[in-house]
Specification:
227 residues, alpha/beta, 7 helices, 10 strands, binds adenosine-5'-diphosphate
Length: 227
């Protein structure tokens, strides 16, 4: 996993009425390689903004983010992202969805095909490579999205409410499976969630954001034995 260093990070949005909304306010954080960090907090506290900044999808107003010492200003292959919606291309097979980032980068597809199949097997989708997203359940599609995010071996995996759109039972199953999977995946993870229970269950560290946007109120180390 990658080391993440966040220094004096702020994000101020300007609204159409020329008001300023502070979404992230002078945040300093360091994530050690391989740490699973969960970010929780009420709606509007700045969670998605923090994730967009980490993903290089939004530019900071002040400060910066360094991943393994490199300052991030745009999306990078060191970073994999999973959103609430799976964003799979329905006309492509599962395998071709997982390989999409490789195709976009014009890397050697044959070289990554085996890796894609390994990842699918790790999330319990062995033999599903030739199916289409419409043939899979919501939980299975979200697993495919996780494989697509992991195909370039990113040092940092970002997940924005990855189970938010799933029904309660599937969600519970995904959380259990995710925990089992994490033993094998060494990535540093930042995981945004509304569920404090799943944050504590999955994460090594839980950041609780303040109802007043942009601040981190609590930084909890979770000392639970991992399987
Ligand atoms: P969360 O993900 O915790 O719900 P967000 O990061 O989406 O929080 O939002 C943090 C604050 O920034 C909120 O007050 C929100 O209204 C505001 N905000 C988010 N995106 C924009 C934007 N594009 N323009 C203006 N304000 C925004
Ligand atoms: P998930 O927990 O991945 O969302 P479901 O709870 O919907 O999956 O389904 C439970 C199990 O049923 C899956 O793990 C899978 O083995 C099987 N399954 C679901 N949909 C399909 C499908 N379209 N084709 C084959 N097997 C399926």
């Amino acid at each position: 996993g990658a080391a993440v260093e966040i220094s004096q990070l702020s994000k101020i949005y300007e609204t159409r009425e020329n008001d300023e909304v502070v979404a992230i306010e002078k945040v300093d954080l360091r994530f050690e390689p391989g740490t699973f960090v969960a970010v929780v907090g009420p709606s509007g506290c700045g969670k998605s903004t923090l994730l967009s900044l980490l993903a290089g999808l939004t530019s900071a107003s002040t400060g910066d983010i360094a991943i393994d010492g490199d300052i991030i200003r745009k999306p990078h292959s060191k970073i994999g992202v999973v959103f609430q919606s799976d964003l799979l291309l329905y006309w492509r097979t599962v395998l071709d969805n997982v390989l999409l980032p490789i195709e976009i980068k014009k890397l050697d597809l044959a070289k990554f095909r085996v890796r894609a199949e390994e990842l699918l097997a790790q999330v319990g989708l062995e033999g599903f490579g030739n199916k289409y997203p419409s043939e899979l359940s919501g939980g299975m599609r979200q697993r495919v999205a996780i494989c697509r995010a992991l195909i370039q071996e990113p040092g940092l995996l970002l997940m924005d409410e990855p189970f938010g759109a799933l029904d309660a039972l599937t969600r519970e199953q995904m959380i259990m499976d995710m925990q089992a999977m994490w033993v094998r995946v060494q990535n540093t993870v930042v995981f945004i969630t509304h569920g404090i229970d799943e944050a504590v269950f999955l994460a090594d560290r839980v950041l609780v954001m303040s109802p007043r946007p942009g601040r981190i109120d609590l930084d909890l180390k979770i000392d639970m034995p991992r399987p």
